[in-house]
Specification:
Helix content is about 45%, strand content about 5%. It is α/β, with parallel strands linked by helices. The protein folds into 3 domains: about 1-135, HUPs (Rossmann fold, 3-Layer(aba) Sandwich), CATH 3.40.50.620; about 135-170 and about 205-285, Alpha Horseshoe (Serine Threonine Protein Phosphatase 5, Tetratricopeptide repeat), CATH 1.25.40; about 295-460, Orthogonal Bundle (DNA Cyclobutane Dipyrimidine Photolyase, subunit A, domain 3). Strands 1, 2, 3, 4, 5 and 6 form a 6-stranded parallel sheet that branches. Helix 1 links the parallel strand 1 and strand 2. The longest helix is centred in the first third of the chain and has 20 residues, at about 55-75. The radius of gyration is 24 Å and the shape is globular.
Length: about 475
């Protein structure tokens, strides 16, 4: 059967794999030849992006190196470019005679602006532009209320979303690739130019091989429902960065979980739907990037003490679990989810520092930084987003006792406390052992700050609707 186009450009973004790649499969179905490329957008890298994450960028480069190997094995090559995507694609249209441009859809305000630029270019040049759903289990707008409006509460969203089937993963049937050099394509030295130094202590490595290896040992997480909050254990899958960059598809993850864990998979699958939920929330309310979903909290009076913020960032608050979490983040680009909750609550409720400060700091450190998920989680823990419960103020001391009872996590990341017993570590707020000179005293009394935080939130209108 004759195909619709001679040459199609496929632009990889957060879909760095060949198998079960919706847009790439469509490109091969519609075009005689496919030109696969990745474009480094200067608006996303380095000084132009205040939310740039070196840990995430390293994962991206590792995944691109792996993608190049996949393409070579399939008979193709990855073309690398640096510049504004619509300008690069226009040059490809001119030089290679491309008649179609295809991408997988993304959802942040920046992504929609970027894809709007591509769409306008293609319309002007009379070139087909295709966007395809690939990143989520359910597209924004599919899972809505009976009235057709987006959900703002997770549980009813989740019940509705589970009514839709998740398609099985599809292997790629690659056709012909574009061959030959492109004069303005960049060599592999571009990677070293963009990231001068790589972190050997990163929590996870990029690339499809790394992601598939996790899928093959999902049976290790059959006790996830009971163990995922234990911060010292490897009780979570560490798939989040692979979700962000698409080294494995969300459909591959879903079906692998169902196959390997059966009923025990439900707790992990629920987390996949939280990701969809936060993405849909940001898609329909793009102003949440910078403002509270509960808009009355935009007038919240924060203390925003820079010395306190710096102590939090550097893991020297005197609250061991908080400090362990922040040091883990700074060193590895990752933090256990329970520790993320504790550190986030501490920043917003104990230190009374604007959640947007924490959102940006996490964005600049996390290997798995996803704008929609990071924003949704920070608004949730700050009680300015979708959390439906009364103001949630986590006690870092009781959280530490409950989820790190033997202080293994704390001792791993706070060396100054390794000589203390777990009991002594759990009581540092009211009994400090002599000679503990290399670790600060708690920077405040949690109980006093608990009451101060409640008062501050009540002044901002906590408990009102809207």
């Amino acid at each position: 059967m004759a195909k619709s186009y001679k040459t199609a450009v496929f632009v990889f973004r957060r879909d760095l794999r060949l198998d079960d790649n919706t847009g790439l499969r469509k490109a091969f179905a519609l075009a005689e030849r496919v030109l696969p490329c990745f474009i480094f957008d200067p608006r996303q890298q380095g000084d132009q992006n205040d939310y740039f994450t070196a840990h995430g960028f390293q994962f991206l480069l590792e995944s691109l190196e792996d993608l190049e190997r996949q393409l070579k094995a399939a008979g193709g090559a990855l073309y690398r470019f640096a510049g504004l995507p619509h300008e690069i694609v226009e040059r490809l249209i001119e030089q290679c005679g491309a008649e179609a441009v295809m991408v997988n859809r993304d959802y942040t305000p920046f992504s929609r602006l970027r894809d709007g630029e591509l769409q306008a270019l293609c319309a002007r040049r009379h070139v087909f532009f295709g966007q395809y759903p690939d990143v989520l289990l359910n597209e924004p707008g599919r899972t809505v209320t009976e009235a057709g409006t987006p959900f703002r509460v997770f549980t009813p969203y989740y019940r509705r979303a589970r009514q839709f089937d998740v398609p099985s993963p599809q292997s790629l049937k690659a056709g012909d690739f574009h061959k030959g050099p492109i004069e303005f394509a960049r060599g592999k030295t571009l990677y070293d130019e963009l990231l001068k130094e790589r972190n050997a202590g990163a929590h996870v490595r990029g690339g499809r091989d790394s992601g598939v290896a996790i899928l093959r040992r999902l049976a290790d997480f059959n006790d996830y429902g009971h163990s995922h909050d234990a911060v010292a254990q490897a009780g979570t899958t560490s798939l989040s960065a692979h979700h962000k960059f698409g080294t494995v598809s969300i459909r591959e993850v879903y079906h692998a979980l169902k196959k390997e864990l059966a009923a025990a998979s439900e707790e992990i699958i629920r987390q996949l739907y939280w990701r969809d939920f936060f993405t849909q929330l940001a898609f329909f309310n793009p102003w949440v990037f910078g403002k509270s979903l509960k808009t009355r909290f935009d007038d919240m009076r924060w203390d925003n003490d820079e010395n306190h913020f710096n102590a939090w960032c550097e893991g020297r608050t005197g609250f061991p679990m908080v400090d362990a979490g922040m040091r883990q983040l700074n060193e590895t680009g990752w933090m256990h989810n329970r520790a993320r909750l504790v550190t986030g609550s501490f920043l917003t409720k104990n230190l009374l520092i604007d959640w947007r400060w924490g959102e940006r700091y996490f964005a600049r450190r996390l290997v798995d930084y996803d704008p929609c998920v990071n924003n949704g989680n920070w608004q949730w823990i700050a009680s300015v987003g979708v959390d439906t419960r009364p103001i949630r103020i986590l006690n870092p001391w009781t959280q530490q006792q409950k989820f790190d009872s033997q202080a293994e996590y704390v001792k791993r990341w706070v060396p100054a406390l390794r000589g203390l017993t777990p009991e002594a570590i759990h009581r540092l707020h009211d009994s400090r052992p002599p000679g503990l000179n290399d670790y600060p005293s708690p920077m405040m009394d949690h109980t006093q700050q608990f009451h101060a935080a409640r008062e501050r939130y009540e002044q901002a209108g906590y408990g009102q609707t809207g």
